[in-house]
Every structure is written in C-alpha cells, then in structure tokens.
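lol ok so funny story. i was supposed to be doing the assay writeup but got distracted and ended up predicting the structure for this chain instead. priorities right. anyway since i did it might as well share w the group, maybe its usefull for someone
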Amino acid sequence: MAAASVAMGTFQLGHTMCAEAAMTRNHTQWDAEARVRRGPTPEVFFEKHLDNSRLVKAEDPQRKLDMRNFAIAAVVFFALLMTYTLQHFRSIEFGYQVEAQKQQLMQMREQNRQLSLTEARLTQPERMDKLARQMGMDTPQPGQFVTPSVTEEMPSSPILAQVAEPTVSSRAASTTIPDIP
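and the output, tada:
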C-alpha cells in the first residue's frame, strides 16, 4: 500500500509539474502572439475625463449657405416632382373621364335612335287615323280648325291673340264625351 501511495504522490507531483510547465508555455506563446498583433510598441491606456459642456460650436457661414442652397434646391426639385406626378395622374384621370363620356355619348345616340324610331312609328298618319276612328272621331270639316297666319307686313311686330267662335260640326255635337274619373 505504501508503494501505491508513493507512486500516487509521485504521479500527482509529476502531473502538477506538467501543468505548471504547460501554463508557462501557454503564457509565453500568448505574450508572443500579442506582441505580433500590436506591433513593437506596448499599448498604454490613460484614463482622461473630458468636460465639453463649456464648448460652443463656431458658426460656419459657408456651410450654412451651402445647407440653405441645398434645402432650396431640394424643395424646388420636390415641387417639380410633385407637379409632374400630379399632371401625370390628372391626365390618366381625364383619359378615364373622356372614355366614360364617349360611352355615355354612344348610349345617348342609341337612345335617341330608339326614340326617333318610336316617334316615327307613333306619328304614322295611318295609325293616328285608325286610333281616331276607334275613338269615334271623323275627318275634320273645312273651317273646323284654324291655322295661325303670320302677317307679312310687319313680321317683327307682336301678334295679339283673338277670340273666335269655333265651328262645331253636327256629328261632333251629337257625340258625347264620357267623363273620366
């Protein structure tokens, strides 16, 4: 047992010596690498407290003028850019409005054509005569209606209304008009 404890002590002592040698070797290598990294001069740091609260920035009139000119140029550029953008979008909007109005014009022309056809159909003399006969009317007698005549002596003078007794035919007098509620 004693031999085992002596051997164990020797092992621990040898192990401790190896560890110390390894640490010394590592420190030496670390210092050598640090010298290579920072160069031949050692790094020295000094702690310095600075109080800049009393310092005032000196005005530079040239820089101030340059900044003012730059700001004015930027505002003018921005205004031109916005004007161009506004005109561009307004032209697109007007294009849409023109197209919408063209569509509306086409629809109105079609509606006008349909109304003209309807008017032509409704104002056909044969149709009107047929409807008049169904309602019990007859062709007008001479003198039953009067067309206004324009005096040619004074076309620019006002025309006064005149009261004239309408002539009633014997057949129209015998026809009674029903009361419509």
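The chain is about 65% helix and 0% strand. Residues 104 and 165 are 50 Å apart (CA to CA).
back to the writeup now i swear
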